[in-house]
TrEMBL record:
Its main location: membrane. It is found in: Cell membrane. InterPro entries: Gly_transporter. GO terms for cellular component: plasma membrane. This is Trimeric intracellular cation channel family protein. Keywords: Cell membrane, Membrane, Transmembrane, Transmembrane helix. Residues 9-84, 96-168 form the Glycine transporter domain. It is a multi-pass membrane protein.
Amino acid sequence: MHVAEVARALDLLGVFAFAVNGAFTAVEKTRVDIVGILSLGIITALGGGIIRDLCIGSVPPAAFTDRYYLGIAAGGALLAFFVSRLPRLLQRPMLVLDAIGLSVFAVSGAQKALAFGLSPAPAILLGAVTAVGGGTIRDVLIREVPSVLSSGLYAIPAIIGATITVLTVAYDPRLAVWGAVVGAVVCFVIRMLGLRYNVDAPTGLRRGERHG
């Protein structure tokens, strides 16, 4: 399979995962109607990719030119809307789908940045932006502190996954597909371990804690 096809497949998987996650989040944390749920699901799914495409000059963004992106995002959000009527099923799928979306967007974002001629460091950065962008926009809209700012093991796994992808391509472009798979798996595992054991990156001390 060609690298571009792999990147697109990962992108679409991330779109579905984040659409479902974004809609689940809307149901759990807001009182919006079905239009609001669909909107938040689609924004979560497509926001990071749109930011990435605008940064690398891929315009109009794939979300507006490839009908599958919007269709899969809307379908995922609708699925979440109907499944959300069973509240006990929400928590675990939200976390897993968020980790899946984070992982596949990190590597697909880095791959697309490399395909547009960016050097490794910007490609890694855009991989992370692709992974966290949509969720950050969603959290701002529902007045939540974005996960990228409140959870140390959110952006970090995305950066690690994107780095593995980029370094693999730099070593041997023929291994790009394997690099994407390994990068996504490593990102997913780190994120889930962080959630399982409640691990975060070190934070700064508040003023009252410095001399306590």
